[in-house]
Amino acid sequence: MRMTMPILSTPDEVDTWLTEAGWYAGRDVRDESTGAVAAVVERYRAYGIDIEPSAAALAFIREHAFLRAVIDTAPENFAVFTPHLVFAGDAEEVAQLAMELRTELFPVGYDTYDGSTLLMDESGRFFFSHHTGAYYLGSEKYEAIMSLMGGGMADAEDYFV
What we know:
Layout: H1 11-20, H2 30-46, H3 55-64, E1 67-72, E2 77-81, H4 90-101, E3 105-111, E4 117-121, E5 126-130, E6 133-138, H5 141-150, E7 154-155
Antiparallel strand pairs: 1-2, 2-3, 3-4, 4-5, 5-6, 6-7
Helix pairs in contact: 2-3
């Protein structure tokens, strides 16, 4: 029997979900996350893509880095809130999406099931790069996580400039 997580529909439900993964109000892992940020910047550069985290992405990373929140229990699927380059081809896809959105994007997490990347732009909007396409999740953390967990993602092309 496949058990899935309930759809998150309020900020309190998101906070509870994140708390189960180790988050708490005021969490700051700036020192621990600096290496993860530098490593992902270097991995992207190795594929010819220059990225830099925005202030919004750094703030999210400082508060959420290294959390592993359960999305599905079978097969195990987690949202991992750590900057990461999952697949080599993702670097070019992220660069292409950033160009089409006319904004800078930075990876702030991924899912472990199919390696989709959670991205943030400098204004704090969240996008999701999935093998089926790119999606807009929301203008801030709660909206984005509720979209991610409830499937309410819009096509990112609706946000192209």
